[in-house]
Design a protein that fits this description.
alpha+beta; 9 strands; globular
């Protein structure tokens, strides 16, 4: 009953492919596959956690086809990139009408149940010096590759002290949320 009469592929739209860098931002186009993300040297310096998330998704065959835009647009509460992009304070760029673009934060996107009318064109990440981020997940079971719990932590490091800490937790049954109690506990702590 839900089979569409027509399917439109975005695969050959070159503007939806690639990674662009400038001194302040890294912009990942929505049609970048997980495999392309894994092999993108542009992400190694500032956003290697994005590569970690891509590595965790499914199998090699799926990573060759699945895109970051598809993962974000899937609206599954356990989608892998939600945690990472919320922790990195990503901005999502959508084409709403011909020649009309809007940008929303990942936080705003998730607060709207991952629903925005339009086509996700790219994800913008701020390049911040001395920022570290880690992502860990525990799979639900060996038969289904859905995280039981996933956590992403991002912090700026200044003189061995945590600053601007973001801790995002997803237990898979609802969209991920920041844990502000843990953030405030870690913010300002010095590593010994």
């Amino acid at each position: 009953l839900k089979t569409p009469a027509h399917i439109i592929s975005l695969k050959r739209i070159k503007e939806l492919k690639g990674i662009r860098l400038d001194s302040h931002h890294t912009v990942i186009s929505a049609m970048m596959t997980m495999d392309e993300i894994l092999n993108a040297p542009e992400l190694s310096r500032n956003h290697s956690v994005v590569k970690t998330v891509a590595q965790n998704i499914a199998t090699t065959q799926i990573r060759n086809m699945a895109t970051i835009g598809g993962n974000i647009s899937s609206r599954y509460t356990w989608a892998e990139f939600y945690n990472c992009l919320l922790a990195l304070d990503a901005k999502l760029n959508f084409l709403i009408q011909p020649k009309k673009n809007i940008t929303v934060s990942m936080d705003e996107f998730l607060s709207k149940n991952a629903k925005i009318s339009g086509i996700l064109t790219s994800i913008s990440l701020e390049n911040k010096k001395d920022t570290v981020a880690v992502y860990r997940r525990v799979p639900r079971c060996s038969d289904v590759d859905i995280p039981l719990i996933a956590v992403c932590v991002k912090a700026e490091m200044q003189d061995r002290t945590f600053k601007e800490v973001r801790v995002v937790v997803n237990q898979g049954t609802s969209f991920p949320k920041r844990d502000k109690r843990i953030e405030s506990m870690l913010d300002g702590k010095t590593i010994t």
